[in-house]
Write a structure and sequence with these properties.
Elements: E1 7-8, E2 11-12, H1 21-35, H2 42-56, H3 72-91, H4 98-110, H5 133-147, H6 152-163, H7 179-197, H8 202-216, H9 224-243, H10 252-261, H11 267-285, H12 290-293
Antiparallel strand pairs: 1-2
Helix pairs in contact: 1-3, 2-4, 3-4, 3-7, 3-10, 4-6, 4-7, 5-6, 6-7, 8-9, 9-11
């Protein structure tokens, strides 16, 4: 249920409560209705319900999610950015079919399933799979698709979409089924990053990311404060990836916000700037007190989540 409590410049508007997955799903329904006069959301909703069960520990054969950075909120963040980017792409003349949009949304829901441990995997947390989580996500998706009667061509398409979330992946080496599928893959790779860095709780969650990296064998950081200190440089690398490997598909967000909310700006980029400005202030002035300045924010009333 989308509530009408938040305020945007000049007026009251409906807002998305990002911590309520069903509010996110309701907004996905609104967005797809703007893209197509009739859109069957039921395949997405079915996967959505199963992903909620998976992260909550209620999906057969799997433990509850125990990674605090790559959690359910990140997955729903990514899902919402994915829908908004695809809507913006359509507004910019990209000819996405209904099936393309369905598979894109399903891929966003499944892109981090590789962090979830099976019931018999009781050592450590899912973070130990950090370096191979994309392959494990594709394996989960393959089993799910085969068990639910999806054609092999859908599995192939979605596997390629998931590969685009790898930071070291050369997207021009992936054999997409169409130009539109290449755009969707780039959109998912973009949504994954924007969903993380624009999160109002990004600064709060960064130490959890370090813990995941440490358990997963990701090098390059001495401790959580080293990772935090290198985050502004990481954002510069992300912007470069947006402009090169990911084809600048982030530009589609502005069209979405203009049509959906009558706001002619990219609110995600604004949220990212807020996070990075705040982080830089802390690094420059209150580094020793970082734990006191990274406190979890109240998420209510955020249109972007």
């Amino acid at each position: 249920m989308v509530r009408t409590l938040g305020m945007l410049p000049g007026t009251f508007k409906e807002v998305v409560y990002i911590e309520d997955p069903f509010d996110v799903l309701a907004e996905i329904k609104e967005i797809t209705s703007l893209m197509f006069r009739q859109f069957d959301l039921s395949p997405v909703q079915s996967v959505f319900n199963d992903i909620l069960k998976l992260f909550d520990g209620n999906y057969p054969g799997y433990r509850q999610c125990n990674t605090f950075y790559h959690d359910l909120n990140h997955t729903t963040d990514c899902l919402l950015v994915m829908a908004r980017l695809m809507h913006g792409a359509v507004l910019n003349g990209v000819a996405l079919e209904k099936k393309d949009v369905t598979l894109g949304l399903i891929s966003a829901l499944m892109h981090d399933t590789g962090y979830i441990q099976s019931l018999d995997d009781v050592t450590g947390t899912g973070a130990k799979y950090t370096l191979i989580h994309i392959d494990r996500s594709i394996e989960f998706m393959e089993a799910y698709f085969l068990g639910h009667g999806y054609p092999l061509e859908d599995l192939s398409a979605c596997a390629n979409f998931l590969r685009c979330t790898g930071l070291d992946v050369k997207i021009d080496e992936i054999e997409f089924q169409s130009r539109e599928h290449e755009i969707i893959g780039k959109i998912l790779g973009t949504a994954d990053l924007i969903g993380q860095i624009s999160d109002k709780n990004y600064l709060y969650k960064l130490p959890f990311l370090y813990q995941e990296f440490k358990e997963g064998g990701v090098g390059g950081f001495d401790d959580e404060f080293d990772l935090i200190g290198k985050t502004p440089k990481f954002w510069e690398q992300v912007k470069k990836r947006f402009a090169t490997e990911l084809g600048q598909v982030d530009r589609y967000l502005r069209a979405h916000f203009r049509v959906r909310w009558r706001i002619d700006q990219d609110l995600y980029r604004k949220a990212i700037k807020r996070n990075l400005d705040r982080l830089q202030f802390i690094l420059d002035n209150r580094r020793a007190d970082y734990p006191n300045y990274r406190g979890r924010e109240d998420l209510r009333g955020m249109i972007i989540g």
